[in-house]
Amino acid sequence: MSAKESVAIGQLLGLLESRYAIRVLWALRDGHAQTFRLLQDSVGGITPNTLNTRIKELREAGLLTHGGEGYAVTAAGADLLKRLGDLQAFASKWAASQSKKTK
């Protein structure tokens, strides 16, 4: 991996590590736009101020957009979510293995 690639990965991970950032994107993974209020409900537990901050950051990063029907992921955001899709299958397997350890 080149230094440029390492920097790019570091920047992306830094953005996604922000509290609720991945959850905001994940709430929009079906491709349907959501209003601010619906998005807040979809994410769960997020304050309006935090949601505003995440929306601003994700819009600046080109992963989120706002249109007439609300907030939606951009093509780049959809690409990222597609790549993160494997995370769901991994998480299910991982959670099952963790529950076996506690028994």
From TrEMBL:
Protein name stated in the entry: Transcriptional regulator
Domain of life: Bacteria
Organism expressing this protein natively: Rhodoferax saidenbachensis
Keyword annotations from UniProtKB, A to Z: DNA-binding, Transcription, Transcription regulation
Molecular function GO labels: DNA binding
Keyword Transcription: yes
Boundaries of every HTH hxlR-type domain copy: 15-97
Pfam families, alphabetized: HxlR
PANTHER family assigned: HTH-TYPE TRANSCRIPTIONAL REGULATOR YODB (PTHR33204:SF37), TRANSCRIPTIONAL REGULATOR, MARR FAMILY (PTHR33204)
